[in-house]
Amino acid sequence: MDKPFLQVARPEDVQGLLRRFGSLEREDISIADAAFRVVAESVRAEEDIPGFDRSTMDGFAVHASDTFGATESAPALLEVAGEVVMGELPGFELVQGTALRIWTGGALPAGSDAVVMVEQTQELDRRTVEVFKAVAPFENVVRKGEDFQAGEILLRAGHRLRPQDLGLLAAMGRQSIEVYRKPSVAIISSGDEIVPIDQTPPPGCMRDVNRYTLSAMVQEARAQPVWIGIAGDSLKLVSSLIAQGLQAADTVVISGGSSMGSRDLVIEALAGFDDSEILVHGVSISPGKPLILARVGSQAVFGLPGHPISAMVCFEHFVVPLLRGLEGEDALRPFRRTTIHAFLSRNVPSREGRTDYVRVRLESAGDRIVAVPLFGKSGMISSMVRAHGFVRIDADCEGLYRGDQVTVHLFSDWTGDRLEKEHLSGHEAAGGGAGDLFETPQQELLSRV
Amino acid sequence: MDKPFLQVARPEDVQGLLRRFGSLEREDISIADAAFRVVAESVRAEEDIPGFDRSTMDGFAVHASDTFGATESAPALLEVAGEVVMGELPGFELVQGTALRIWTGGALPAGSDAVVMVEQTQELDRRTVEVFKAVAPFENVVRKGEDFQAGEILLRAGHRLRPQDLGLLAAMGRQSIEVYRKPSVAIISSGDEIVPIDQTPPPGCMRDVNRYTLSAMVQEARAQPVWIGIAGDSLKLVSSLIAQGLQAADTVVISGGSSMGSRDLVIEALAGFDDSEILVHGVSISPGKPLILARVGSQAVFGLPGHPISAMVCFEHFVVPLLRGLEGEDALRPFRRTTIHAFLSRNVPSREGRTDYVRVRLESAGDRIVAVPLFGKSGMISSMVRAHGFVRIDADCEGLYRGDQVTVHLFSDWTGDRLEKEHLSGHEAAGGGAGDLFETPQQELLSRV
């Protein structure tokens, strides 16, 4: 019953290993479905945007030179030659000394090279307008090709599409786009003590938590969860469900094996597949140390600890980076979390050589936000539910002290409760950072150097 | 052609007005579908979790008192009475002087009150084990009800469900949960100059950008976009499409009316509905000033500026808060964005009394991250595409200076490119904040006070 020797890897080395799994195939999809997908092709502008000189104001299209020297007391007097119809290119050339009514977004007529804002004018009658301020050539105008020029690279392969990127593709008339396929993740829970949630666990058993936490994390990582099942502690069952998972999805995550015996079972099952290789067995983070990473054929299989918290920490730091790589991104790391600054309520010891993720609950203390470490035993889900986020203690740090100002990585992009209302000013005063966009004056300005 | 007087509202007042739209009805859904939904009921623990004293280690269940005084040189000698079977409650009481092999997650037998880690033991033979270290009562044990006790409130109504919250519901055996219905948003583009993306815009026209940017933003806000169509600049068309939108979705967003004439058309159409009210016409932010907010019956209708950038800024600051409120959250504000600290590359003037959102591109400069303001005219999509995020300049601030350290609110929770690799240390050195979780030593520790 000796513990097997774990070849404990550094987290950055595990992330480095993920690169060998490459990326998934490409597919062409409608831009209406492409939000937050990763482009597989570099996209170049096929035409100038805008395709014509366009007004950015309501006012009058003019020859700029006709307004030179115009002031309140000595306005320029121009003849109004008509009005630009929205959605049409004016069919005539604006002659010197005349002006054309124009709306925001309207096309400038040939000859004109600037727009005078309506606020700088007064119409004397339907045919005559006074201009009180000179405009420079191309003032209040977006010139043809000023937004994008034909041939310019707009988006590079490997870029995950944000809303504005889709707007850009729309502006270029791109109806479809080549993206990497969205990865799918087979989820397996294991352990004789795990029962489905619709069963009342017999004494000594517990309901399957990881199926639900990990499925939600797969969705959060913009991938597709595929539920396989619960494997009892037998080599045959574990092997069979992993094989099903490899068929059903791009990668497999089996949690459980929280006890040494069932960990060994996962290792034994993985080693039993043709062309398989155990890449990692143990990583220097806490919680999450007993991570298993294997290659079966070209696919990655993760053995996560059975403890829900350890499983979540491993998922974020190793499975999410794999998913980003499979989807064609360069960055093999977790997505960024929103952060908040807070002061530690007590000392937190740590062991050198190990990266610790300490769950904290944020609380009010006068005008400060205090981070209270939650030292729930790792089998307990409550400390994750009660926590707002985590504080990371790096491998080369022996611990943090009471009163230290720390960055808390939030579990969500909302806190949505009293904390958000009461303490954002405290938080910002404590050193800047993320926060509500309206309630805190001067929050953006942290220091002048 | 005078500009109509805008009753310009403060952004916080507009957000305050949103509260009157209340929340949507409730529905019962499977917890497998409930990730990131908002709970409509407070959830109490119906039973103790765990339901039995559970080991957190592989080792031996013992009477703690049998180990008192045990050391390396004077180990306690215990008789091994057998092994705990995973998923079963041991059927006998552990008598003093004996120990039972147990695995992580296993149930302690009656009589035993602690677990000795396997590393602290040596088996002399199958029947005898030496214990080298004393354990305190309940050491390495999660006690019955220690995670959650029956009757305890676990989740409050209005809480948006994170992965761990679903795990908690699973642990409690909850198969379904009452949540607020997910809001839907009808999207309309307007303007005679707007054509669908599958058409080549005639001279003076442009393709519909806002349909795609706003649909993606609706999805990002965890709501459901419903595309209605493009309305030309006629009162009848605008009214008819808004009416369709009110039928099809919980709220309506009509963009366009970038020119004064079409803004007036939206106002006129909204005023023409029975039981309607214009609540806001103009807000003191830039870009985004010409925002319209109206009530039609019990529904909110937003008139967003036609400029893609202005439309996006308005959507984030006013439509997203409405959607959060409709879904039962208390916080009527945007979701938090991830942030990064950077130094401004140049002065940025601002007008007092107006909140400015300045788009910035992040660039490398030695060991620092520099935020370069992009002053694209607001009709241009390129400045949004080229930007990584925005810097906010508060209403009571007259501007920021070159070299000021500012918080950049990122457009995404990834940057995914060289910036992420090259500059995280620079960023952290510049004052802490969000960042990669592995590459920067000591990033969490900002200051000691």
Q: What is the fourth-level CATH superfamily of the largest domain in chain A?
A: MoaB/Mog-like domain
Q: Oligomeric form of this entry?
A: homodimer
Helical segment tally of chain A? 8
Strand content of chain A: 25-35%
End-to-end separation of chain A? 61 Å
Mean residue pLDDT of chain A: 87
Tell me about this structure.
The structure is a homodimer of 449-residue chains. Chain A is α/β, with parallel strands linked by helices. Chain A has 4 domains: 11-24 and 182-326, 3-Layer(aba) Sandwich (Molybdenum Cofactor Biosythetic Enzyme, Chain A); 26-49 and 147-180, Molybdopterin biosynthesis moea protein, domain 2; 54-142, Molybdopterin biosynthesis moea protein, domain 3 (Molybdopterin biosynthesis moeA protein, domain 3, Beta Complex), CATH 2.170.190; 339-429, MoeA, C-terminal, domain IV (Beta-clip). Helix content of chain A is 20%, strand content 30%. Chain A contains 8 helices and 29 strands. Chain A has helices spanning 11-17, 163-171, 210-220, 235-248, 260-271, 308-326, 382-386, 418-429, and strands at 26-30, 43-44, 54-55, 59-62, 76-83, 98-102, 114-117, 121-125, 128-131, 141-142, 153-155, 176-180, 184-190, 194-195, 206-207, 224-231, 251-255, 276-281, 285-286, 292-296, 299-304, 339-344, 348-349, 355-365, 368-373, 389-393, 399-400, 405-410, 445-447. In chain A, the strands form 8 sheets. In chain A, strands 7-4-6-5-9-8 form a 6-stranded mixed sheet, with no helix packed on it. A 6-stranded mixed sheet of chain A has the order 16-13-17-21-20-18, sandwiched between helices. In chain A, strand 8 and strand 9 (128-131) form a beta hairpin. In chain A, helix 3 packs parallel to helix 6 (308-326) and helix 4 (235-248) packs across helix 5 (260-271). The radius of gyration of chain A is 31 Å and the shape is elongated. The model of chain A is unreliable at 1-5 and 422-449 (pLDDT under 50). Chains A and B meet through helix 1, helix 2, strand 15, helix 3 and helix 5 of A and helix 1, helix 2, strand 15, helix 3 and helix 5 of B. Strand 28 of chain A pairs antiparallel with strand 29 (445-447) of chain B.
